[in-house]
Amino acid sequence: MTYLMRLPKFEYLGPRSLAEVCGAIAGPSGNEVMLLAGGTDAILQMRRRERVPRRVVGLKGVAELDFVREEADGGVAIGAMTTLRSLVHDPRIAARYDLLRETAAQIGGHELRNVATIGGNIAGALPCADLPPALMTLGARIRLSSARGDRWLALDEFFPEFGRTVARADELLSEIGLPRPAPRSGGTYLKFHDRQSMDMTVVGVSAWVALDDEGRTCRDLRLAYANSAPTVFRAKRAEAVLRGQALTDEGLEAVAEAACGESRPRTSWRANGAYRLELIAALTRRAIRRAWDKAASQGGAKS
Ligand SMILES: Cc1cc2nc3c(=O)[nH]c(=O)nc-3n(C[C@H](O)[C@H](O)[C@H](O)COP(=O)(O)OP(=O)(O)OC[C@H]3O[C@@H](n4cnc5c(N)ncnc54)[C@H](O)[C@@H]3O)c2cc1C
Fold it and tell me: Among 129, 123, 131, 127, which Cα is nearest to 168's?
């Protein structure tokens, strides 16, 4: 059992701009500094003494990190401090990336979504986090900012191992970029969890499908998983199985089998590894069917 203690003592900084945040995290090293977004994970980490930072840098006052912006190329940019509530209600997200809206709506309850942010959900590097699989299948890129400048990378490359990201100690996640939705594409996120509580995801599957011009065969398939391995990951071998093919039971079975082969689910008190594999197979089949139906019915307007 993990006991929650009082918060440890730390210096608190409340910068008002991205440049000030970069300055505040440029000095101290490694674990000495901690960013605080919505605080729904960070406060618990400190109260469990998993993190005992010397300095906490609050991002709440940095208005320039809270935005949804339509880009000239048809994509959308989202600031790291955008709340899950905004993702659920923003009409620009709903119009183009229904998969993201649907995923955000499944996280926690209203109180949590009012304060928890997209940046915290990604940068927390939890293998059970729900937004990273959905964002990976949408082809998201992320911007890391520091006093030395910015760099962009594919979200697929962000989680090298359990609980870690490739961000350096002086970098924060500042922006998420989503490409213009492909024609005849659609996606869905299915998660299995205890329905009676706001518990963490046991297994989550995001499937995104793009169909050919006639809407008959699979032009592209992307699959990403939560809590099915030490990190959120794309199942790239499974993705290749259906490309160029029509949807059949045999094809779905082959994808599900390949996805299980790429997963490394753990055994915990929530579920053992064998049960998680059953979930991965079942949710993969179901998610692809739903994504396919969405792609076929939407003619390309949404993902
Ligand atoms: C009751 C409960 C239910 C939950 N249910 C779910 C669920 O269903 N699905 C799910 O995915 N999660 C769930 N969570 C976990 C959590 O609420 C989410 O992951 C949330 O999105 C975290 O965002 P935050 O803004 O609160 O991050 P914070 O708690 O502020 O930060 C989380 C971590 O990310 C770091 N960080 C934050 N922002 C940045 C940034 N911009 N750049 C770099 N590092 C940063 C922080 O230093 C910290 O280590 C739940 C939590 C609770 C308490």
Answer: 123
Task: Give 223-236 pLDDT, tens digit per residue.
Answer: 999 999 999 999 99
Torsion on CA atoms 74, 172, 122, 140, rounded to nearest 10: 20
User: Looking at the DSSP assignment, which residues form a beta bridge with residue 117?
Assistant: 83
Write out residues with Cβ below 6 Å of ligand 1: 34-42, 80, 107-108, 112, 116-117, 119-121, 123-124, 129-130, 172-173, 198, 200-201
Contact 17, 62 (CB under 8 A): yes
Cα(112) to centroid(ligand 1), Å: 9
As a whole number of angstroms, the distance between CA 288 and CA 194 comes to 23
Ligand 1: distance of its center to the CA of 121 in Å?
A: 4
Residue 300 has pLDDT above 50, yes or no: no
CA of 65, closest atom in ligand 1: 41
| Residue 67 confidence (pLDDT) | 98
